[in-house]
Predict the structure.
Amino acid sequence: MSPVVEAKGLKKYYDGVKAVDGLDLEIGEGEIYGLLGPNGAGKTTTILILLGLTEPTAGEVRVLGHNPAREPLKVKRLTGYLPENLGFYDDLSARENLLYTAYLNRIPEKEAKRRVAEVLEVVGLKDVADRKVGAFSRGMKQRLGIADVLLKEPKFVILDEPTSGIDPEGARQILDMIVRLRDERGMTILLSSHLLHQVQRICDRVGIIHRGKLVAQGTMGELGAVVEEGEHLFVVRTSRVDENLLESLKGLEGVTAVEAEGDLVKVRATADVRSQIARAVLAAGVELVELKGHTYTLEEIYLRYFQE
Amino acid sequence: MSAVFWKELADHLGSKRFVIFFFLILIVGGASAYLAAQALFGQESAGEFIYLRLFTVSGGGLPSFLGFLAFFGPLIGVVLGFDAINSEFNRGTVSRVLSQPIYRDWWINGKFLAGLTALAIAVASIILIIVGLGLYILGFPPDGAEISRAAMFFVISVIYLGFWLSLGILFSIVFRQTATSALASIALWLFFTLFLYMLAGLIADQVAPIKPGVSADVFAKHESIRDLVLRFSPVALYEEATTAILIPSYRGLGIAALLQEASIPTSPLPLGQSLLIVWPQLVGLVALTSVCFAISYVIFMRREIRST
Ligand SMILES: Nc1ncnc2c1ncn2[C@@H]1O[C@H](COP(=O)(O)OP(=O)(O)OP(=O)(O)O)[C@@H](O)[C@H]1O
Ligand SMILES: [Mg+2]
């Protein structure tokens, strides 16, 4: 099966600014891919290139097998896009806004009306469907944006910061909705964000983008492993933490740092020193409650990349 | 494109600015036609083509309807276009619309046609109201020749307003701020309606100054230079074209025509002959409109669609 997105050596320069700088990206069918990066990393620019809304300075792009710069309509027919700064016609109702999108997609009137009612129901805006969008809150507009994306029944959905400016509960609902789109409708989803825990929660694969380059890519496990290479972190829970114990842990071979956090001790080492730790704890006359290798959170991974 | 057309047309017809301008021309147009009818009423010599003279005769200090339309028409055209595209950027709707499967030029064309239709509706209803007023005051219906000439007047007026609409749309693409494009539009309007006439006079005075006792040749040269400069003005093109249509004995600008008129009794030309006279002006207006479109396309086709 050919990938939904295939980009090689993507570059976009704005007189002097390298917004995207040699980016390779591949997204498979049915995946939820998270594009993660700080402000100005080049996430939006990458998305614009995928949609043919801007032309790359260099590089090859295929979206659903088409070149978005040359065959924009073929890409847009199958791709839904939730822009970063979402706007609607404020003097039209939610329903009218969506109907306009449906007609732009050449969906016949009857079918359009049916689909609009359906997607409004899906995003929970059925009751305010005939209110003017100008009176909508940020969260309602965002949900309307998702309805707008679903309307054309896309195969591939691009969401640029879908939860920005949304409260935690609203964000949770939106994230759940995204997962359902994949699970129930088999859509492939690309979402950009700088909010780590959200990406971590729902994405199958994550690409970390920094200064226009993809600095790391993979599943959460793979990314953790990359960070772990040459550095191991162990979390030790003991019945009691004292200076004596910390000293003896520090003295172990290969251990680079020891930090105490309440009844937890974090041990960083260059090798797997779990059995040495266990012995040292027992030798210090303390009970060992728990000893585990730490799995990195995306936050730690992310911070690692941006510290470099 | 029809989706864009119907939405934009509904927007125009419901917009305050359209309604305000519509009533403005309705009131002024109606008043000027009423005064013209008063002036013509009972005047035996009024004779032929009296209905057409409702548009060209001025009475009671008001300009003729033709003069009014030539002067204020551009403003109406420009007002319907000056924020066509940049307001979509400002509202953030551009990303949503252009991520639907429509071509960018369709979008512009749809907006143009909608504006043109709104203008045509306005002009047609005012012409009909003036004719109705004439019927009421004069007490007899217009004849076939008058009707066909009034229809031509309508077509030329719509073409003229269409040029200004396309100029407004061009400015809405060139300038990101709606205020800037409004100012630029007004500046160009003043330039063509006022300054170019002064400029043409000045240039003609420089090249062929008219002093007491100059020969007819110098006088003719002065006039033709003035005309040449005015050829660049859509306002002058429109005035000339509509004059030829509304005043059937009109034989074209210039001293030659004037001299001819003096020697030959002024008999009305058939419509075909009048059309022949105005053909270059019409082509000129359409060409100017095409230039606006061409520039609009070139700028907009490759512009990056990023709503900020
Ligand atoms: N039209 C433009 N002209 C010049 N530079 C631009 C333009 N658009 C974007 N840039 C620059 O390109 C870089 C990448 O911008 P981009 O919008 O892709 O970032 P982003 O990852 O989406 O950031 P954010 O999280 O703030 O949305 C930034 O440094 C930005 O300043
Ligand atoms: Mg962005």
